[in-house]
Amino acid sequence: IHIYIYIYIYIYIKLKGKFYTGFILYALFWSNANSSSQQRGGAVSRIWSLTQRAVRQSTTRTSKPPGVALKFILGPAVLTVSARLFCHVAHCEADVNNNTPVEVVAKNPVPDFKWHVLWEFVKPQLFTLVCAVVLAFGAAILNIQIPLMLGDLVNVVARYLRENTGNYVHEIRGPALKLLGLYGIQGLLTSGYIVLLSRVGERVAADMRKTLFASLLRQDVAFFDANKTGQLVNRLTADIQEFKSSFKLVISQGLRSITQTVGCFVSLYVISPKLTGLTVLVLPCLVGAGALIGSFLRRLSRLAQEQVAKATGVADEALGNVRTVKAFAMEERELQLYAYEVDKSCEMNENLGTGIAIFQGLSNIALNCELLNYQHYANVFVSLASISILFGQVVRGMSSGARVFEYLALQPTIPLSGGGRIPYHSLTGRVDFMNVSFSYPTRPGHQVLQRFSLTLPPSKTVAIVGESGGGKSTVASLLERFYDPTSGVVMLDGLDIRTLDLCWLRSQVIGFINQEPVLFGSSVMENIRFGKPEATDAEVINAAKQANAHGFITGFPDGYNTVVGERGVTLSGGQKQRIAISRALIKNPSILVLDEATSALDAESERVVQEALDRATRGRTVLIIAHRLSTIQRADLICVMSNGRIVEAGTHVELLSKGGYYSDLIRRQRAEGQK
Ligand SMILES: Nc1ncnc2c1ncn2[C@@H]1O[C@H](COP(=O)(O)OP(=O)(O)OP(=O)(O)O)[C@@H](O)[C@H]1O
Predict the structure, then answer these.
(1) How confident is the model at residue 264 (pLDDT cuts 50, 70, 90)?
(2) Which residues form the ABC transporter domain (predicted)?
(3) What is the ipTM of this complex?
C-alpha cells in the first residue's frame, strides 16, 4: 500500500508541479531516525521516537496501520510546507512560456504592491473572474463529495462480499453512476474555471503590458540613461508572466486546496480504504496519454512563446532606439505596433490555456476513476502541498506585480504634448541658447555646459567643433529637448522651447541625423515613412531622391519594399545614412541637426552622403556637430568648444587667420591624416 501511495503521489507530482522536497527530507529524516534508534543514539532519533509514541497514544486506532497518517501524509506535507516557507528550495512551477527570469535591479529595491492598481486591471474582467471563482468553488466542493460517494460504493462491495446475497449489479449501479456523474461534473467544472481563469489572466496581462509599454515610451531620455533596456523589457515580459501565473494559481489552487484540505481531513476518518484494483495496469496508459497530450501542449506553448518574443522584440527595438522614436515623435505608432503583437500573443496563450484546461479536466476524471482507492490519503497531501506552493507563489507574484506597478505610476518630467506651436509660414527657425548650464541627471556633479550661449540664425549653417567630450552632442540633445537645461533657456523664434508642444517640435520642426543612423527591421519605404507616417509613396521617393538614395534603392530587386534587416544590417553605412537623411527630409524640417553625420563613412561614401547633405541643408537652419573639419569649411559660423564653453567662433577663413584653437585642430587633423 505504501508503494502504491508513493506511485500515486509521484504521478500527481508529475502532473501538478514538483513539490518533492518534503518527501526527500522526510525520507532522510525517517531513515536517520530508524537507524539512529537502532543504535540508541542521537537527539534526532529520540525526538522522533517520542513524537511517534505521542501520536500512537493520542490517536484512536482505526483500520489503518498505526501512524500511517503521520508517516505518509502529515510528515511529508509538514516538511514540504516548512521547506517552502523557510528555505525557498526545489520549487519549479511549470511556466508555460519558459521565460528565463532575468535579475531586475529596481530603482526602489522593494516597491510596494498597489492593490488599487491591480483593481483597475481586474475590473474589466470582473464578471469572468466571478464565474471562474464560482466554478472553482463548485469543483472543490465536489472533490470533497467524491470520497463520501466512494464510501457508499465500498459499502455495497463490502456488504456483498460479506453476505454474498442480493443483486450485486443492481445495488452497485446507483452509487457507481452517481460517482461517475460526479466525476463528469467535476471535470466540466474544472475545465470551465480553467478556461475562464486563463482568459482573465491573459487579458489582465495583455492590458498590463500595453499600459506599461505606453508608460515607458512616455518617459524622458534621462530615464533611459538610468535604466537598462533589458531590465525594462524584462518587466514587460518575465515580471508580468510571473504575476499572471501567480494570479491564476492563487485563485484556482487557493480555493481548491483550502476547501479540499478541510474536506479531505474529514473524509479521511470517515472512509476506510480497501480497494486496490487495476491501478498498476492502468498507470502506464495514463502516463503515456499524458505524455502525448503534454507534447502537444508544449508545442502550443512554444508557439505562444515565440509570439511573446516577437512582441518583446518590437518593444526592445523601440525602447533600444528610443532617441530615434522620440526624434520623430513616433511613440503612438510604436505603441500600436506593440499592441497588435501583444493581442496576438494573448490569443495564442488563451488557446494554450484551453488546451491545458481540457488536459487537466480529462486527467482529473481519469485519475479519480482509476486511483480512487488512495484518494483520501493523497488528496490531503496534495492539498497541503498546494497550499505551501501558494505561499511562495503569492510572494513572488506580489513582488513581480509591484515591480510592474512601479513603472506604471512614473510621470515624465518633460511632457510629450501640450504647449504652443508656431504656424509653419511664420516659423523662421532661429535658435538661441542663452546662458545654458547643464549636468546630466545621471551625473549631477559633472557640469557639461557652463553658461553656454549660441545663436543659430535662420537658414544659416552653424558648426560646432572641438575636443571629444567637450559637450558638442549635448548641445544637440538640448535642442531636441531630450533634456532640459539646469539653468538658462533654449529658444526657438524667441520662445522658450519648454513652452512649445514637444511632439510638434520633434515631428515637424527639427530633423535629426546622427553618426550611426538607426533603421527599423522593416522595408525601405516604411523606414523613410517613419519621418512622416501620412506621406504618400511619391513623397517618400522624392525624399529619397533629395538624399541621393533613390538610385541604390531602385537597384535592389525589391526596390522600396526591400527589407533592411534588424537595425538595417543588410545595408552599407553610406546607404543607411542616406535612408536616414531621406527620413529626416520627408518631414521638411525648418531646423536640421547633423551630429557627426559623415564621420563613420569611408571617403567615397562620405562624398555621396555629403552631396546629399549639401542639398538637404539648403534653406534650413542647420547645426552641424563635426569631427572631420573638412566637412564644415563652408559653414556660416564655426564654434570651437572646450569644457562646455565656446572658446572661439568665426568663419573658416577668419579662424584660420586667428591661429588659435581652430587652426591648431586643423593642423593636428592634417598631421593625423598624413600618418
Ligand atoms: N547620457 C549621458 N549621461 C551622462 N553623461 C553623459 C551622457 N552623455 C554624455 N555624457 C558626458 O557629457 C560630456 C559631454 O559629452 P558629449 O557627448 O556632449 O561630448 P562631445 O563633445 O559630443 O564628444 P564626442 O566628440 O566624443 O562625441 C562627456 O563627459 C560625456 O561623458
Answers:
(1) low
(2) 431-668
(3) 0.97
Strand boundaries in 555-671, DSSP class E: 591-595, 621-625, 637-642, 645-650
Distances (CA, A) of 276 to 147, 176, 283, 368: 15, 16, 13, 13
CA 469–ligand 1 middle distance (angstroms): 5
Give the DSSP H or E segment for 531.
Answer: none
The answer to whether the CB of 473 is under 6 A from ligand 1 is yes
Task: Please compute the mean of the pLDDT values over residues 348-352 and round it to a whole number.
Answer: 83
With a cut of 90, say whether residue 62 has pLDDT above it: no
642 C-alpha vs ligand 1 centroid, how far in Å?
12
What is the band of 277 on the pLDDT scale with cuts at 50, 70, 90? very low
What does the alpha-carbon distance between residue 44 and residue 40 come to, in Å, rounded to a whole number? 11
In which element (H, E) is residue 156 found? helix 126-163
Compute the distance from residue 450 Cα to the ligand 1 centre, in Å: 14
Tell me how far the alpha carbon of residue 316 lies from the centroid of ligand 1, in angstroms: 24
pLDDT at position 214 is 93
Largest CA-CA distance found in the chain, in angstroms, rounded: 125
User: In the numeric block, which cell numbers belong to residue 116?
Assistant: 488599487
467 in contact with ligand 1, CB cutoff 6 A: no
Residue 436's alpha-carbon distances to 323, 433, 483, 488, 505, in angstroms, are: 22, 6, 12, 4, 19
Q: How far is the CA of 320 from the centre of ligand 1 (A)?
A: 18
The percent of the chain in helix, strand and coil, each rounded to the nearest 5, is: 65, 10, 25
Residue type, 381: F
- DSSP string for residues in 189-220: HHHHHHHHHHHHHHHHHHHHHHHHHHHHHHS-
Mutate to test the pocket of ligand 1, among 438, 449, 474, 484 (most ligand atoms within 8 A of CB): 474
pLDDT, tens digit, 9 for 90 and up, residues 591-627: 999 887 776 666 767 777 777 788 888 888 999 998 7
Query: What are the CA-CA distances from residue 57 to residues 44, 180, 346 (Å)?
Result: 20, 39, 57
Please report the pLDDT score of residue 205 as a whole number.
92
Place of cell 476513476: 369
Burial (0-12, 13-18, 19+ Cβ within 10 Å), 656: middle
Residues 199/336, Cβ–Cβ less than 8 Å: no
Chain centroid to CA 577: 32
**Residue 444, CA atoms < 13 Å, CB-side half-sphere:** 4
How confident is the model over 573-582, as a mean pLDDT? Answer: 87
Cα 606 from Cα 131, distance rounded (Å): 66
DSSP string, 249-264: HHHHHHHHHHHHHHHH
Let me know: does 290 contact 358? Beta carbons within 8 Å: no
Cβ–ligand 1 distance for 474 under 6 Å, the answer: yes
